């Protein structure tokens, strides 16, 4: 089925009250434009992409933002498609985090937020969830952002 045909089906489900919003995953700019060119009542709210300090292709956030779509990073701390965090990447994040009293993971997640994206994480450990959300009491400098961006 075509992207437009699939989107039309999703739109019918939304209109039937089966979901409140519609989002996509791993859409390229051309795929997003295909959906946005349709005359429908809704557009994708979020494009969930592999996006991290270790893997951030091109202008992912800017390409989606200019289309009015939010980027949500999946595998924000690395993963098979989210980019593996090398020990040097973890080390650089940890080094930056030391001055803020933050872990390497908190620095990596803060970088995502400061690029204009959001993230989703998963864990069976409640402390990890708490740590993941404790990233809004510090801000990375422009130099730190550039240093982290250059790691990928």
UniProtKB/TrEMBL annotation:
NADP-dependent oxidoreductase domain residues:
4-151
Q: Name one Pfam family in it.
A: Aldo_ket_red
Q: Which domain of life is it from?
A: Eukaryota
- Record keywords, A-Z: NADP, Oxidoreductase
Q: Which InterPro entries match?
A: AKR, NAD(P)_OxRdtase_dom_sf, NADP_OxRdtase_dom
A GO molecular function assigned to this protein is:
oxidoreductase activity, acting on the CH-OH group of donors, NAD or NADP as acceptor
What does the sequence similarity comment in the record state about its family? Belongs to the aldo/keto reductase family.
Protein name, as recorded: NADP-dependent oxidoreductase domain-containing protein
Report the source organism: Craspedostauros australis
């Amino acid at each position: 089925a075509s992207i437009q045909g699939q989107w039309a089906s999703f739109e019918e489900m939304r209109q039937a009250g089966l979901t409140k919003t519609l989002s996509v995953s791993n859409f390229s700019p051309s795929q997003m434009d295909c959906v946005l060119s349709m005359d429908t009542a809704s557009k994708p709210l979020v494009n969930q992409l592999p996006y991290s300090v270790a893997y951030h292709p091109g202008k992912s956030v800017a390409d989606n933002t200019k289309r009015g779509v939010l980027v949500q990073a999946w595998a924000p701390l690395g993963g098979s498609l989210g980019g593996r965090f090398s020990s040097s990447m973890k080390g650089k994040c940890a080094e930056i985090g030391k001055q803020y009293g933050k872990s390497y993971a908190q620095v990596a997640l803060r970088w995502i937020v400061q690029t204009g994206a959001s993230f989703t994480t998963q864990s069976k450990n409640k402390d990890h969830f708490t740590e993941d959300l404790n990233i809004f009491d510090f801000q990375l400098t422009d130099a730190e952002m550039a240093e982290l961006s250059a790691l990928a």
